[in-house]
Amino acid sequence: MIYPALLFFNYAKKEKLLQLLDTRYQKVKKELTRSIEQAEQSDENPSESITSLIIQNAIKHLTIEVEWLMDLQHKIQKNELQPQVSYEIEHFFSN
């Protein structure tokens, strides 16, 4: 469960976090490739079958997740992310 842990990314070792995100990226990309291959098997999954529509939906979600993971890794490498938890605490007490 890496996504909830991202709220505390500023407490993590940067290289370890990038490694975990890359592992997730590779897993999602592999799943995306497998889904695309499955969608291309039109004899097994006619384009308007429910199975085909579910696969198409999965492809859309996985594509966005791959893009998001790449963007997130770049932002972490460039130190462009703001620590959410500490920011929220600071914001809470400044009001």
Walk me through this protein's architecture:
This protein has 95 residues and is mainly α. It has one domain (14-94). It is 73% helix and 0% strand. It is built from four helices and no strands. The model has no long low-confidence stretch (mean pLDDT 85).
The span between the termini is 33 Å
Q: Helix count?
A: 4
CA radius of gyration is 18 Å
Count of strand segments = 0
Major sheet summary line: none
The helicity comes to: over 70%
Mean pLDDT: 85
List the domain count as a whole number.
1
Structural class: mainly alpha
Strand content: under 5%
How does the overall form come out from the CA principal axes? elongated
* Regions with little confidence, pLDDT below 50 for 5+ residues: none
Report the order of strands and helices.
HHHH
Layout of strands and helices, then pairs:
Layout (H helix, E strand, L loop, with lengths): L1 H4 L8 H26 L10 H28 L6 H11 L1
Helix pairs in contact: 2-3
Keywords: Coiled coil
